[in-house]
Amino acid sequence: MKKSLLLFIASILLIGLLSACGTGGEQKNGSGEQKKVLRMGTSADYAPFEYIDTTKGNEIIGFDVDLAKMIAKELGYDVQIVDMDFSGLIPALQSGKVDFVLAGMTPTKERKKNVDFSDVYYVARNMIVSKKGSGIKTVEDLKGKTVGVQTGSIQEGEANKIAKKVDMKIESRNRIPELIQEIQAGRFDAAIIEDTVAKGYLDSSNGKLEGHTIPTDKEKSGYAIAFPKGSKLRDEFNKVLQEKIKNGEVDKLIKKWFDQ
Ligand code: ARG
């Protein structure tokens, strides 16, 4: 008798627990209405797109964060940011841990097999970053060098492609600041990083670093928002994204984060 009662209580608790951590995340606000929360996966190592400015606090900020909030607001959602290594983002979409990803992610053919992408909202180019005076300006100059890239990024793929023609050593790291630290410590000769992000490091290096853009495939330069395959959110986001591009709000964000 007692045992079955316990079992009954345990199962009620379990059901409560399961519904509390269900998908999509709905939170009740004060008046008891449902406010839907979307979980955004990102890798907050990518200023000015997503990063933490420790001089200002420990919140994740940046262009991608503003863009996500702007679109989500229009659709009636709140955004909750989930930070992880870049290489974990697609698996997180596939396992339903996050509802979308905004992380300066490029919609490659390979990735499209596993996730759906929005339209492109930004275009970047690859840059070789090295210590000032390294003499490394072109892909050919990487011969015999140790070159850093972010794990799981298209720059990692690009480095592998270059290495087929130019004999060099590739080193992968999970986070962009690690690449810069390895250059500064003299362990890497160079790193391949996208220009807008690299610029921030060049500017704050007091002239100790230099960067040179390298030819970048057109289909390997855009940024888009990623969704789980078949997610209805993709079309909803795209619609608002296009509106905001047309009415200049995306441009305003670009000015806010890039023209400083
Ligand atoms: N655009 C590149 C890619 O899609 C690099 C993106 C890295 N993003 C980041 N938040 N660290 O592979």
Protein model, in words:
The chain has 260 residues and is α/β, with parallel strands linked by helices. It has two domains: 33-123 and 222-258, Periplasmic binding protein-like II (D-Maltodextrin-Binding Protein, domain 2, 3-Layer(aba) Sandwich), CATH 3.40.190; 126-215, Periplasmic binding protein-like II (D-Maltodextrin-Binding Protein, domain 2, 3-Layer(aba) Sandwich), CATH 3.40.190. The protein contains nine helices and 13 strands. It has helices spanning 2-20, 63-75, 89-94, 109-112, 154-163, 176-184, 195-203, 233-246, 249-258; strands at 26-28, 34-42, 51-52, 60-61, 77-83, 100-101, 115-123, 126-131, 146-150, 169-173, 190-194, 209-213, 222-228. A five-stranded mixed β-sheet has the order 10-9-11-8-12, sandwiched between helices. β9 (146-150), α5 and β10 form a beta-alpha-beta unit. Residues 16-23 have low confidence and may be disordered. The site of arginine has 14 residues, from loops.
